[in-house]
């Protein structure tokens, strides 16, 4: 491979990052240029629609509450899932009793819970947050149980030998030991939370990001609809990115461990 | 959707407790189910919750039994399964083809990373309005969502599998001067197979969720549509009966795919690995 | 006056009698090695002594107090060194953990940790993670953790079994130096006969399962030992041959009384 100077190296990296996306946008532009396809506006049209559609006022009225509900539901589901997961994971008896029921509940596709929760809670904010909690909690719960169960028994013996018990043991051994698996559960829960947020709003709501997009679709406001889709996409990317950052911090030791390929002798 | 964990090693020398313990756990599991059903039966009857909101399990099961006698019920199940299976197959075909094709030209793959990392976290539900516009309430809407979601699950695993080939097998193939295609068939494919199957397993779960979602929200034919209709009807027990059905379907999908995975990988001695997605 | 007294220890798992009758007593400051054929329950014996397993019969006393649970002045070094360190804690935090649980004050804790890490030769690796270290170094961390705990008795369960020969030689010398520096009483379990004779003041030979004490011998080698001269000392060879012969005969199961 030819030796490239430092600037050249950086140039290649930038190229690698942006080339395909730019090509794809170019293809989009070419495909939509004739203005013939009703459902596919030009990139320009979509960009032009962004400003008027998403004013600070609409962002505050629609997007922020959606995101707030999402985060609230996700947080509650996370706390409940981890707490219950630790309790069940630590007790082989409890695990045996609850496993079939939990596996079944987890197999129910989360969106199906929306109509069910609507029977209880109507269509207000409580309903939307409840739906998110009910849908998200299962991956957190089940992954936490698995993570707690799989903590190395040798470490458990170390704790007994050095008289480490109670809260310290819970924090230092159980929670940190299960953290990789817990994070996997939280990641899955986040994806489900986004899905449920959007669906609960599309299904029955008077405001929110999902609702707004559906309104555009029903009113055949196509470029506006696309801006909504893009915004939703950006939201998904941003949340995944933030979660990834958090994961890298919390699981720094785990990534290093896997990279080194060392661990048990 | 869980990572595989190697079994915990035995610490103290103990006489074989395997079979009796499994037996005991199975009993406990069954007891857990019975307790849950009992709670479900009592809570509405005692009045903690309104029967209109949560009918007792006996009435739900009665409705379920009744529905199982109707053709419409099984048709709905069939429609959901069809959308799920077709979408999964399309997604798997596309993901495997693309993933292996890019294995032929690794340098090109580096250019796709940014696009993949951007498109992957986009929730498929964002495409719902588009699906409605283009496909209306037909099968196409379901497929659009299912394929989009399942594709990424499988594709990411295929990429990991293709990258993770056994270096010894690879060098052996090279020293025998295999062609690129030969290398793919004899080295890359067997190495990547566990990953591919893991991807299919994850994709299958996601595909079912999206299939039901499309039916629920858009109105494509299937169980989801039946639930939406039941919700605005007069029989809350029907909603629960259909929800139970989707749960059973979900369990069958999980169990079925895992069994298929185990069968196909019987020769693969080592621990199956999964890329945490 | 014995510090650690194991008397008449018996351990059965259902109908299987793993340990029939073992009595060992350690005086304050002794270094005693336990050797025996594989499967003779050396680890089980050590765990009973540590209070991690309840014996089926007999007793364990430490400083006059019966041992029913892990006592505060006893430390254990496990065989699986890689798995006995917390991978999410740095070396320093691993060594420090039992001290924090013991509520030792910050300044004192830091002093003990630094001292222990220096004693095992890892003073500069305090901020590394266990998986960044080699196997031998990981075991040193486990030893440092035990030493920093300031125990009266140190129990070591085949700590060098999974380590390569050269590292094992270094670690053996490390144990002797720690023993001299910190004056701690050590019960060292091993399957390596040479190691037992090299390290110990006394060697207790265990029989095959159901285990009893086959023989106890005193190692009358000089107190100053090193890998080169001690191992070529004719007395060393005599002792190890004797122990080897004992173990060979110990491999035959003990006849029922």
From TrEMBL, chain B:
PROSITE patterns: ABC_TM1. Keywords: Cell membrane, Membrane, Transmembrane, Transmembrane helix, Transport. The keyword Transport applies. CDD domains: TM_PBP2. Its main location: membrane. Residues 77-257 form the ABC transmembrane type-1 domain. Pfam families: BPD_transp_1 (PF00528). It is a multi-pass membrane protein. The keyword Membrane applies. InterPro entries: MetI-like (IPR000515), MetI-like_sf (IPR035906). The chain crosses the membrane at residues 81-105, 126-151, 202-230, 237-257. It is found in: Cell membrane. Belongs to the binding-protein-dependent transport system permease family. This is ABC transporter permease. It comes from Cryptosporangium japonicum.
Automatic annotation (TrEMBL), chain C:
CDD domains: ABC_NrtD_SsuB_transporters. Residues 4-233 form the ABC transporter domain. Signal peptide: none annotated. InterPro entries: AAA+_ATPase, ABC_transporter-like_ATP-bd, ABC_transporter-like_CS, ABC_transporter_ATP-bind, P-loop_NTPase. Keywords: ATP-binding, Nucleotide-binding, Transport. SUPFAM superfamilies: P-loop containing nucleoside triphosphate hydrolases (SSF52540). GO terms for molecular function: ATP binding. Gene3D superfamilies: P-loop containing nucleotide triphosphate hydrolases. It comes from the Bacteria. PANTHER family: ALIPHATIC SULFONATES IMPORT ATP-BINDING PROTEIN SSUB, TAURINE IMPORT ATP-BINDING PROTEIN-RELATED. This is ABC transporter ATP-binding protein.
């Amino acid at each position: 491979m030819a030796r490239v100077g430092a600037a050249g190296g950086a140039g290649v990296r930038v190229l690698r990052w942006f080339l395909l996306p730019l090509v794809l946008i170019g293809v989009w532009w070419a495909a939509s240029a004739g203005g013939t396809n009703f459902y596919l506006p030009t990139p320009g049209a979509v960009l032009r629609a962004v400003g008027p559609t998403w004013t600070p006022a609409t962002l505050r009225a629609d997007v922020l509450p959606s995101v707030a509900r999402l985060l609230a539901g996700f947080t509650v589901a996370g706390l409940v899932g981890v707490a219950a997961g630790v309790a069940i994971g630590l007790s082989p008896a409890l695990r045996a009793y609850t496993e079939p029921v939990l596996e079944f509940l987890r197999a129910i596709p989360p969106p199906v819970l929306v109509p069910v929760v609507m029977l209880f809670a109507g269509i207000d904010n409580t309903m939307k947050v409840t739906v998110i909690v009910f849908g998200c909690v299962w991956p957190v719960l089940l992954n936490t149980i698995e993570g707690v169960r799989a903590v190395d028994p040798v470490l458990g013996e170390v704790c007994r030998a050095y008289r480490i018990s109670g809260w310290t043991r819970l924090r230092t051994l159980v929670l940190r030991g299960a953290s990789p698996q817990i994070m996997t559960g939280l990641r899955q829960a986040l994806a489900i939370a986004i899905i449920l947020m959007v669906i609960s709003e599309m299904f029955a709501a008077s405001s929110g990001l999902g609702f707004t997009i559906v309104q555009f679709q029903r009113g055949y406001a196509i470029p506006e609809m696309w801006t909504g889709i893009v915004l939703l996409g950006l939201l998904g990317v941003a949340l995944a990115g933030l979660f990834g950052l958090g994961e890298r911090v919390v699981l720094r030791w785990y990534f290093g461990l896997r990279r080194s390929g060392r661990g048990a002798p | 959707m869980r990572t595989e964990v190697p079994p915990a090693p035995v610490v103290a020398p103990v006489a074989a407790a395997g079979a009796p313990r499994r037996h005991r756990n199975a009993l406990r599991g069954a007891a857990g189910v019975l307790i849950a059903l009992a709670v479900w039966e009592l809570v509405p009857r005692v009045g903690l919750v309104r029967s209109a909101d949560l009918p007792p399990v006996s009435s739900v099961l009665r409705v379920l039994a009744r529905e199982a006698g109707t053709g419409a019920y099984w048709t709905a199940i069939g429609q959901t399964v069809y959308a799920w299976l077709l979408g999964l197959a399309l997604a798997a075909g596309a993901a495997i083809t693309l993933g292996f094709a890019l294995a032929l030209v690794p340098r090109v793959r580096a250019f796709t990373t940014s696009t993949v990392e951007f498109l992957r976290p986009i929730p498929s539900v964002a495409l719902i309005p588009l699906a409605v516009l283009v496909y209306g309430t037909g099968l196409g809407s379901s497929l659009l969502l299912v394929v989009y979601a399942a594709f990424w699950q499988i594709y990411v695993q295929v990429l990991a599998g293709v990258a993770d080939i056994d270096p010894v097998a690879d060098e052996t193939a090279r020293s025998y001067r295999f062609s690129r295609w030969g290398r793919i068939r004899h080295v890359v494919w067997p190495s990547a197979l566990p990953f591919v199957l893991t991807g299919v397993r994850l994709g299958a779960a996601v595909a079912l969720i999206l299939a039901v979602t499309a039916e629920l929200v858009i109105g494509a034919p299937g169980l989801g549509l039946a639930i939406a209709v039941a919700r605005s009807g007069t029989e809350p027990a029907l909603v629960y009966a259909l929800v139970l059905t989707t749960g059973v379907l979900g369990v069958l999908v999980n169990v079925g795919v895992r069994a298929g995975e185990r069968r196909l990988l019987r020769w693969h001695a080592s621990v199956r690995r999964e890329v945490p997605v | 006056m014995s510090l650690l007294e194991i008397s008449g220890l018996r351990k059965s798992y259902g109908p299987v009698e793993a340990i029939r009758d073992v009595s060992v007593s350690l005086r304050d400051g002794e270094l005693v090695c336990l050797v025996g054929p594989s499967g003779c329950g050396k680890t089980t014996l050590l765990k009973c002594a540590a209070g991690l397993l309840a014996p089926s019969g007999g007793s364990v006393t430490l400083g006059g107090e019966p041992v029913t649970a892990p006592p505060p002045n006893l430390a254990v070094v496990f065989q699986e060194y890689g798995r006995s360190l917390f991978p999410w804690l740095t070396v320093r935090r691993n060594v420090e953990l039992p001290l924090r649980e013991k509520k030792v004050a910050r300044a004192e804790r830091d002093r003990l940790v630094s001292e222990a890490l220096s004693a095992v030769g890892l003073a500069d690796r305090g901020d590394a993670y266990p998986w960044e270290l080699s196997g031998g170094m990981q075991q040193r961390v486990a030893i440092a953790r035990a030493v920093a705990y300031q125990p009266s008795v140190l129990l070591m369960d085949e700590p060098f079994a999974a380590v390569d020969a050269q590292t094992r030689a270094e670690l053996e010398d490390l144990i002797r130096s720690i023993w001299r520096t910190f004056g701690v009483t050590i019960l060292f379990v091993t399957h390596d006969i040479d190691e037992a004779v090299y390290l110990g003041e006394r060697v207790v030979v265990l029989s095959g399962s159901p285990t009893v004490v086959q023989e106890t011998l005193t190692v009358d080698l000089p107190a100053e030992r090193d890998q080169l001269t001690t191992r070529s000392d004719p007395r060393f060879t005599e002792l190890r041959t004797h122990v080897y012969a004992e173990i060979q005969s110990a491999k035959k199961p003990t006849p029922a009384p």
